[in-house]
Amino acid sequence: MIEIAIVTHQRRYSDALDLAERLSATICMDDIGMGAARNHERAWTWLKDSPEPWSLVLEDDAVVCTDFLNQASMALAHAPSPIVSFYLGRGRPPHWQPKIARVIASESHWITSTEMLHGVATAVRTELIPDLLTWIEDQEPVDEAISDFAQQNHFEISYVNPSLVDHRDNGTIMDYHPTRHPDPDPVRRNEIRRAWVLGTRPDWNSSAIAM
């Protein structure tokens, strides 16, 4: 159902290795200073030939829920769009937090948006990856590049509710978050970066609410 790649920096290789062993995932390590966006691109390039219907890129500071592989497979079977985030976080981006707060308590299993807000845990229908790679080539940050790809192709982005992945908020390799938007960035990443709600469901459906 899902093929997984984990992007990591050499300073976080031990975290990535632990995650990869638990999820039977492949590690894409940036040991030559290519940067996060290019390492994500390399992960998607590796995943594009997967026989599985869904491909997932996890960052090395992702913290997966209990029984993650089963939960992710059940959720993706009901995904209302071909691009899915398993993480919806507090803190960043700050200007999206009021919108998230308005819908996070919904009973819907999915929260939809036109924007990819995070790169922590992104799943894409494998058949779309070749087109995605053409779009994100040489663009950064990767979450904004995926947003652009989705908008140009009239795809929504769906967030699982609750999140199946949390974020190990122990600092970032980068001092600043690169973005094409002038406000509120560039700012130092000093907001809390954790999931609004982390949890699981006994079953999943395709009910959704727009953010």
Total number of helices:
6
Q: List the uncertain runs.
A: 172-189
The CATH architecture category equals Alpha-Beta Complex
Kindly report how far apart the N and C termini lie.
Answer: 27 Å
CATH topology (fold) name? Spore Coat Polysaccharide Biosynthesis Protein SpsA, Chain A
Helix content: 25-40%
What is the CATH domain class? Alpha Beta
Provide the number of structural domains: 1
Please supply descriptive tags for the structure shown above.
211 residues, alpha/beta, Spore Coat Polysaccharide Biosynthesis Protein SpsA, Chain A, 8-stranded mixed beta sheet, 10 strands, globular
In short:
The protein is α/β, with parallel strands linked by helices and 211 residues long. The chain has helices at 13-23, 36-47, 68-76, 97-103, 129-136, 142-152, and strands at 2-9, 26-30, 54-59, 62-64, 83-85, 110-113, 121-125, 157-160, 165-167, 208-210. The two termini are 27 Å apart.
Could you please describe the fold and organization of this structure?
The structure is a single chain. The protein has 211 residues and is an alpha/beta fold. The protein has one domain (2-210): Spore Coat Polysaccharide Biosynthesis Protein SpsA, Chain A (Alpha-Beta Complex), CATH 3.90.550. It is 27% helix and 21% strand. It contains six helices and ten strands. The strands form two sheets. It has an eight-stranded mixed β-sheet with strand order 2-1-3-7-5-8-6-10, sandwiched between helices. Strand 1 (2-9), helix 1 and strand 2 (26-30) form a beta-alpha-beta unit. Helix 2 runs antiparallel to helix 5 (129-136). The two termini are 27 Å apart. The relative contact order is 0.21.
